[in-house]
Structures are given as structure tokens and as C-alpha cells.
Amino acid sequence: MTTERIDYGSFEAAMAKSRILEKELENNPEKHKMLTGDRPTGRLHVGHYFGSLQNRVRLHKLGVPTFIVIADYQVLTDRDTFAGIAENVHQLTIDYLAAGIDPTDGRTFIFPHSHVPELNQLLLPFLTLVTNAELDRNPTVKEEILASGQKNINAGMYTYPVHQAADILFCKGTVVPVGKDQLPHLELTRVIARRFNHRFAEGNPVFPEPQPLLSEAPIILGLDGDQKMSKSRNNAIMLSADEDETARLIKRAKTDSDRVITYDPDNRPEVSNLLMLISLSTGRKPEEIAAEIGDGGGGQLKKMLTESLNEYFRPLRARRKELEKDPGYIRQVLKQGIQAARDEAITTLNEVREVMNMGL
Ligand code: TRP
After folding, report:
1. pLDDT for 317-337, tens place per residue?
2. Which of 33, 39, 113, 126 has most ligand 1 atoms within 8 Å of CB, for mutation?
3. Are residues 350 and 320 in the same domain?
4. Could you tell me the residue range of the domain that residue 289 belongs to?
């Protein structure tokens, strides 16, 4: 097996390449295929929205064909409970649609990967293209193992990045919008595509090497101002929260004792994060908002944040409420997504079998 060293680093290089790719997508959206995904571990919150969902919706609206994989098998890698998976898949789909993903455009598909057998089958040849040592070195997996607090790590944890390569390559995805933590998985996917082509399809490649697309979006901290926004840390505002709940949560947000509001992310992370959220929901600069509040203190800041977030998310939340009333429609969206994903996966698996000398 060819084993050039997998480069699990180089954030700056990925950022520079993303800017070039961004232009290319604007000019030729239909030449690409965007593949994105989430684990169904709960509903989406404001941090997900400004951190990634908004960017995906923007690319989708440029006209890039879009596959959204709901990675339900991956939920089993770092937790024991699976009780909420079906409900989470349903709620996640509602969040996507409410945020502006439009599956009625004929080129946008949402599906849970557990329903696409031919996608999952790609995992088997892919596993033979990487070494145990390479999987062991994946920095994101290492961090997740630490964070899971589990003593016995199942093999799914070490191999899910290979499964993720199947998620991306089954439809020959070319662009994957991701956060920094997913770059190692993308690099592994590219290595698998390259090694597959080299080993089985020299001169006539089966898979493209998909490119990660990093966005400029800031990392949104939770209302504690201390860690990334996350439902499990109890510091999140869900997209599905109503206006009163949003107001209540923001009232409890942490600020500091300096009444004069300034934008200073290094020294005043809590206040600056709240200013950033106002900025994202109004399009105004955080420094300008801070100057306007002046010595109005945390009270004024929170009032402004409540109003601007509620106003910004009002249309999304109204759509969300409508979609919640129609579970049959959500199921239909997923069924269509699964069907389209299977069509792609069957074609790819046939090609894969053929080049591996496993055709009949
Ligand atoms: N691993 C990703 C996460 O934890 C989810 C995911 C699964 C994914 N398959 C994917 C993301 C394919 C992008 C492309 O968020």
C-alpha cells in the first residue's frame, strides 16, 4: 500500500484555498456537488446557525447541488444512548428547512446514512486503504475520545472518519463546508480517494478529491461566555426557542462588572460574544454597537440582543412552527433524499466493484 504521510494540519493553507474555491463556486455552481452533514444529537442552536448553517444555505442558494447527510451511525461512536435518534433526525430536518434549505429545487437531498446501504458498503474497501496507525493519529478523534470520558473506546470511534469518507465520496462530492475540527477527516477522505484511484483505477479515476471549504464565521460562545455554544453545556439558545424563552436565557447570560460596554474579545469575552451576536443578527459592526450602548451596561446590552435575535429569527421560527405541524411532509423529504442518495450510491458502488474486479 502507498502510504504518503497524511498531513493532518495546515489551517492557513486550507483557508487560502477556500477563498479561491469560493470564487469558483460563484462562477460555476452547477459543476460542483456540496456534501455537508451533522450528527443527529439534538436540535440546532444559534451557534450552529451563525457558525455553519447560514453559510451552507448561502452556498445552496448559489445553485450548488447539495447533499446533506444526517450521520446517525456516528452517534453510536461516543455515547451509549440512542433513544433520541429518530426524533433528532426529524428536528434536524425541520431546522434545515426552516433555515432555507429547499429540497423542492430538484438538486437538494437530505438523508440519514443508515438508510443508504450502498453508501455504507463503500466502508469495506475504504478500510483497506488506511493503516491503523493513521487512524490512531487523527487529532479530532483523539479529542473526542478524551471528551467522551469513556474508558472503553469502540472501534467505530477510530473508523468513523473512514465512514465519513464514504458519506462524501458515494456521490462524488467536491465541496465540503466544514469547521476547523473536521479538516483531518477531509484530509483522510482526500487520501482515500487518491489511494483508491491509484490502486484500482490508475489513469481513469473513480473519485474526485473533495475540497474543504472553511468560512470566515466566528466561533460563537455560549451565554456563559466561556465555552463554545452547545446544548450539552446548557449555554445555548435553540433555533426552536420562542421569544420569551430567548429573553429569559439572555437575562441569565454572563457579563462583567464594567458598565461601559466595549468590544474586546480577548479581555471581555462574555460581553464581546453578546455584541458579536447582535452584530450577526443586525449586520452592524460590534464596535459601533458597543459605542451606542456606551455606559448603558449589561442590561442595555441584553435588551438589545434579545430584540435583535428575536427579530432576526422571527421568520425562521415561524417557518419552523409550520413545519412542525406536518410530520408527514418531513418524512417525505427524507424519503426523497434517501431515494436520490441510493441512486447515486448504487451507481458508484457498481463502478467501484467493476474496477476492483468484483463485477459479475
Ligand atoms: N463528523 C461530522 C460532525 O461530527 C458529521 C459528518 C458525518 C459529516 N459525515 C459527514 C460532515 C460528511 C461533513 C461531511 O459534525
Report:
1. 999 999 999 999 999 999 999
2. 39
3. no
4. 243-324
